[in-house]
Amino acid sequence: MSNEVNVVQAGGYQVSGNRQGQVTVREITSSEVIRTFEMDKGVVVREVFLLDGSKTVAACQKNHAIFWNLATGKELHRCQQRIYGFSHNETKFFTYKYPEGMFLYSYPDLRQICTLAKKRMPPGPFHFLFSPNDRFLVVWFASGYPSSDENYPRRNPVRSALACAKLFNLDMCQEIQEFSQLRALEEGKFSPDSRFYDFQKTKRSLSDNNFVAKSWRFNLTTYEVTELSQ
Fold it and tell me: Using CA atoms, how far apart are residues 192 and 29, in angstroms rounded to an integer?
């Protein structure tokens, strides 16, 4: 199993995390190491981020996140939850902690905006997607997630492990319940104008056990579902 488990590149830098709790920053062109940050020893670094035009480095372990100034190496913030992802404009991020739920924060002040969901949440996210306008967030959950450190990363869950996909309106801080009734079999995508979310292989509802999977379009304004022509 590779020691290096996460890598991101932006602004001429490459940031990676490893299984021993170390975060390394390199210049892409020269591969020269310019910064090394230490987190909890022997704990897998699960996510790494380059923020603020590559001025800030952030990294997560299972239950917390740390932010550093890349130029000075100084620690800027700590968040006592694992961060899964940032909106495109980097003004929001979401965290998840089982069984407490999912939370939305603002960045860079790390202020908790709201609780997105806290009841009957499945074990953990394995995939997420913000809409292009950053107003919606889709999160896919699977049983057994987050993976244990020994098995991390396990990015491709078996089909039987898939639990559900949930859609959140970030402006309203609400889960869109109509979306949860779809029986999604594959990940979808937002339209470029953020008006729709399209599923390529989905059943119309959770109760349609014998229904042939089709392609559907979820309207993000009306919350209605229409079948896409084949």
Answer: 32
Which of the 8 DSSP states describes residue 229?
Answer: P
Q: Is 11 left (phi over 0), alpha (psi -120 to 50) or beta?
A: left
Check: CB of residue 223 under 8 Å from CB of residue 217. Answer: no
Q: Where are the alpha helices (DSSP H) in 120-208?
A: 177-180
Task: Judge whether 23 and 45 are in contact, CB under 8 Å.
Answer: yes
Residue 223 burial (CB count, 10 A): 13
What is the distance between the terminal CA atoms of the chain, rounded to a whole angstrom? 42
Tens-place pLDDT, residues 201-230: 655 554 555 555 577 889 999 999 888 765
- Whether residue 75 contacts residue 57, with contact meaning beta carbons closer than 8 Å, is answered with no
| Residue range 97-154, pLDDT digits in tens | 877 889 999 999 999 999 998 866 666 788 899 999 999 999 988 776 667 787 777 6
Nearest to 102 by CA among 88, 122, 87: 122
80/87 Cα distance (integer angstroms): 19
Whole-angstrom distance, CA of residue 218 vs CA of residue 72: 46
Q: What is the C-alpha separation between 9 and 139, in angstroms, rounded?
A: 23
**79-100 pLDDT per residue, tens:** 999 999 999 999 999 998 877 8
The answer to whether the CB of 174 falls within 8 A of the CB of 151 is no
Give the C-alpha separation, 106 to 35, whole Å: 26
CB atoms within 10 A of CB 159: 8
Name the residue type at position 12: G
